[in-house]
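Lecture 7 notes: from sequence to structure.

We start with a single chain of 133 residues. Read the sequence below before looking at the structure.
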Amino acid sequence: MAAGTKDDPWALTTAPGSSAYTMYRDDDVDPALLVCQVGSTRLTYLARAIDDLHAWLLARGDWVPLGAADEKKPAADGTVEAWGRAEDNPVGGWYGQRNGYRGRFGMYLPPLLEALGLAELTHDARTNTMRGI
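Now the structure, written as tokens:
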């Protein structure tokens, strides 16, 4: 597995397997960020999202829908996407850091957790779910 650095990013695929992207952890900034590169689009999320999402999934104890949505679209209640922008999550709102590109948390974080061995993820064409392990 890749080191998850800028020079050796994680090569990931969305849950349905329809899009490839890379992600790495940037510890040279404060707070540390996850940098997600999807084609020419760069998204950033707080790096603590890995541990926070894993803890939330373990507390839920069951399969949770991903519910990926763009920043300007509402996230379905009870989804990973909704939690990633909820006022009652550990950071008090958005894990996404780049204004206009803060959404899609439920699309790009779950495959990373799966690759790190922290979660199981379904890989259907639509309506995927995940759970912490």
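The chain has a mean pLDDT of 97. Keep this in mind for problem set 3.
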